[in-house]
Amino acid sequence: MKLIPNFAELLHEIKLPSPEKCFLIEDGDEKYIAKWINNGEITCKLEKLFDWINVEYKLKKTNLNTKEKLLSEDVKNRFPIDQWRVIKIFSDHQKSIDTTKRQLKT
Question: What does the pLDDT read at residue 100?
Fold first, then answer.
């Protein structure tokens, strides 16, 4: 999973899409999150997806066996486990700005 290619441009233009649309699904991601994607797009709220990933792949556990550790590391490398909240904040903030601008025009 990676950021959309024009994320920085959209951020500066205050035109970010919803948090879920700020990410692209990469080849192989389906193996881990198939239940949460359809036609290459995330089908749930970003927070729900990453909460599920954390629990499903035991990302916060420390007493994992070797197989679980390898899987956990693979998931941490593949998904923006520590960065998704910042993207969500940017997107939500821009949505608030847009809503406020529209309300001020009316």
Answer: 87
